[in-house]
């Protein structure tokens, strides 16, 4: 039997596949190695790390995590403050973004298009441009160092969410909405019984984006907190400044900060992949 010849195009295609997987493997290693090292360091006894440096802990210990509860900076309180901020902001953004997007998509009022483009234009403005005027305004109201100061700037929806939901709502058939009106449903009934159920994948996507964004938010909590109220990001930064020589303690704080997001990814990994398609990041 004659050996089958491999066409040059097939060889190039196979080489391209190998190169692609090699590049993806390298990118995965570069991304994951810092997290793995942080986890190893967090479970390493302090004395062992000081003596041997980065090494496999023998045995692994939870002392570094327990030490976080005994600090002058209450890291546990910062964790629960972060949870509260994320919950309040997520609920506010979803509710207000839904109502605003529905108004732009389905209601008719003077200046609707112009107002929508003004809202959309705010996506082009960097946060660094607005954070100082916003702080001056909040300082005049006496809100620095308060929970209200942490959540109010983000509570009433976001331009990105309004834009994405408006496009989603415009795809819903007008005949379905008219049928709901004939059945006696008002705007609230149409939203809760028709529009929201049909837009569930997009809403879950927005919820995940909101949770991750505000769990990792740093600049605004750093400014408005004034070292009187901390979230996880600012608490971890303060720990790094105060305990720069205690690497295992700092890494334990970092692991505790990223653990909820890892759990969130494990639970909603399929939805996160779908969200990449919905938001257009390809």
UniProtKB/TrEMBL annotation:
Chief site of localization: membrane
Membrane topology: Multi-pass membrane protein
Claim: 4Fe-4S is one of the keywords in the record: no
Membrane-traversing stretches: 21-43, 78-102, 114-138, 150-169, 190-215, 249-268
UniProt keyword list: Cell membrane, Membrane, Transmembrane, Transmembrane helix, Transport
Gene3D superfamilies, per the entry: MetI-like
Pfam families, sorted: BPD_transp_1 (PF00528)
Subcellular location, record wording: Cell membrane
Biological processes per GO annotation: transmembrane transport
InterPro entries listed in its UniProt record: MetI-like, MetI-like_sf
ABC transmembrane type-1 domain: residues covered: 79-268
GO-annotated cellular components: plasma membrane
Assigned protein family: Belongs to the binding-protein-dependent transport system permease family.
Protein name per Swiss-Prot or TrEMBL: Carbohydrate ABC transporter permease
Originating organism: Gulosibacter macacae
